[in-house]
Amino acid sequence: MLIILNLICISLYIVAAVSVASRWFHKDGPLIKLSLLATAGAITLHLIILLNSILSGDGQNLSIINVGSITALMITAVIWLLSLRNQQTFLLPLVTGFSAITVFVASFTPGSVIMHIELRPSLMAHISFALLAYGCLSIAFLYALQLSFINRRLKQKKAVIIHSSLPPLMEVEQNLFRLLMLGTGLLTLSLASGFFFLENMFEQRQVHKTILTTLAWVMYAGMIVAHKRVGLKDNTIISLSVVGVILLTLAYFGSRIVKEVLMG
């Protein structure tokens, strides 16, 4: 039964991605209703699959596969809600495609890292802040890619792609910085909760995560301050957003990928 749910979920994500991406240059634009409906169905199934995987045993299975799937689901749900509100589906193919990959990988790469976070509220808070920060800053990264794409099309005088899926440049930039500020605030709470409530932030197994996350926080905070005071060029914002999400990805997932996936 679970395999069938996985296949249906992956299929719906693919339908959502293709119904937009295949019609970017079509005169009638993307199939917005089909894409949003397919994404809604996929998100629902994805949530059911995740809950079954995380809560199936004693404690919570927070393997790297499940954590990555949680992140993908969270990002997809946020982008879907934004698309539902403004009918702009330009980013949907990226997030639904990535979510389809995570569901597929989870189907064939089972992992188990059992934790009991309900016994440690401070750990639950730290993990929640970390995942929310990563999700928010990852969405900011997607907006940075969108900003880069729009800038390039404008310079090439090819701005008209599909007006219903490509939002105005200023709106993208404003949303990007709102996300950066929110994500940096959540990252601050994640670091603060770690320093105050966890005892192993500077242990050998954790020190690289602490250093990389702190570097990312300094970069994001500096970018926000610099933009407010002197302004930053779009290319600089885009480059720093890419660097920031790479640092956080290495911090949160780097060692766990090596340990749980590559080394088994």
Layout of strands and helices, then pairs:
Elements: H1 2-21, H2 32-54, E1 60-61, H3 64-86, H4 92-108, E2 114-115, H5 121-155, H6 169-197, H7 207-229, H8 234-262
Antiparallel strand pairs: 1-2
Helix pairs in contact: 1-2, 1-4, 2-3, 3-4, 3-5, 5-6, 5-8, 6-7, 7-8
List keywords for this structure.
8 helices; 264 residues; single chain; mainly alpha; two-stranded antiparallel sheet
| Apparent shape | flat
* Average pLDDT rating: 84
Fraction in helix: over 70%
- Share in β-strands: under 5%
Integer tally of domains: 2
Structural class: mainly alpha
Biggest β-sheet, characterized? Answer: 2 strands, antiparallel
Low-confidence stretches: none
SSE series: HHEHHEHHHH
What is the count of β-strands? 2
Number of helices: 8
| CA-atom Rg in angstroms | 19 Å
**Termini gap:** 26 Å
Please list the strands of the largest sheet in the order they lie side by side: 1-2
Short précis:
The chain is an all-alpha fold and 264 residues long. Helix content is 75%, strand content 2%. It folds into two domains: 1-115; 117-264, no CATH class.
Question: What would your notes on this structure say?
Answer:
The protein has helices at residues 2-21, 32-54, 64-86, 92-108, 121-155, 169-197, 207-229, 234-262; strands spanning 60-61, 114-115. By secondary structure, it is mainly α. The chain folds into two domains: 1-115; 117-264, no CATH class. It has a two-stranded antiparallel sheet with strand order 1-2. Helix 2 runs antiparallel to helix 3 (64-86) and helix 7 (207-229) runs antiparallel to helix 8 (234-262). The longest helix has 35 residues, at 121-155. It is flat, with a radius of gyration of 19 Å. The two termini are 26 Å apart.
